[in-house]
Amino acid sequence: MEDQLKLMIPGPTQVPQTALQALARQPISHRSSEFSAVMAEVTENLQWLHQTQNDVLLLAGSGTAAMEAGIINFLSPGDRVIVGTNGKFGDRWAELCKIFGLEVETIAAEWGKPLIAAEFATKLEADTQKQIKAVIITHSETSTGVINDLETISHHIKNHGKALSIIDAVTSLGSVNVPVDSWGLDVVVSGSQKGYMVPPGLGIVAVSAKAWEAYKTAKFPKYYLDLEKYRLATINNTSPFTPPVNLIVALQTTLRMMQQEGLEAIFARHLRVMKATRAAIRSLNLSLFAQDDYASPAVTAVSTSELEADKIREVVKKRFDMEIAGGQDHLKNKIFRIGHLGFICDRDILTCISALEAALLELAYQDFSLGAGIAAAIKVFQTQI
Q: Which CATH number fits domain 262-383: 3.90.1150.10, 1.10.260.40, 1.10.443.10, 1.20.1250.20?
């Protein structure tokens, strides 16, 4: 049957029907009073979601565009930066910084392990000349299902006094508590296709007053990604260039949904489905790639030794029209990843685990009792209501 595809990947995520209907409307003029009203509401609600009084700006582009904007607006060629790398997207930050001619030092951890906050403290405390201009951290590492201790690391960055914190919150914003102001975060980037529950196409950047001071002396050339243009336009509830109007209208819809649910309930829901997923995986005698202490509420990575991960994914998609994500780089075909962020509920987890059990059975995996994963997930849901 067509049009039954279910996405259980860490992005793009499922889109609510009301947001799909908003996408299907005739576009309105981006220079109209109607669109200005939309922008005003969206900006206010983005500040609510980010828990900030800072500017929150919308770009037409992916999360990687927002990442690039975070570099070229606040840094200059040759600046010294520290990049935390413990997965694909931490590595992407390091690659991006090197392309722009920054002096990159990495603090690394093995894929599947968290960054060690004390290592950042040591590096920052040793910088008595205040030469480090920024520390770049991926909060929820999508490639491995690890969440890094951003609160503690950001505390060490603030103690340095000079360095900016530049944070990749692409799979944590809208899924995990990211209190931008109370943690003193300077530049926080995210993308529409994750916790925001709309399709890809919008990059979101929150910018602190400290970052705007750094903007004044930043020397990278920029035009389309010049965030000052977006700041001035946002003050007037507009955009400096033609924006993806219908995506923003859809975002208006999903932000209303999120406000109605409430921040605490959103975060609790993501924790609940994470716990249920992980309990189910254990009951199927499969290996979790990240330990409980640093598991991301957005995505669960599963190691497979007896079976090829991509074969499991293939059967799940072919038989049940459901997509789960594969491993990246050296983890290709060694892990699969279940995304449980955004427009997700208990029913989705039960459906996914059912499909996974059936796929394992079809592939002659025998190290589990049929129904064990479902039972484990249900038990979590009964105790986490």
A: 3.90.1150.10
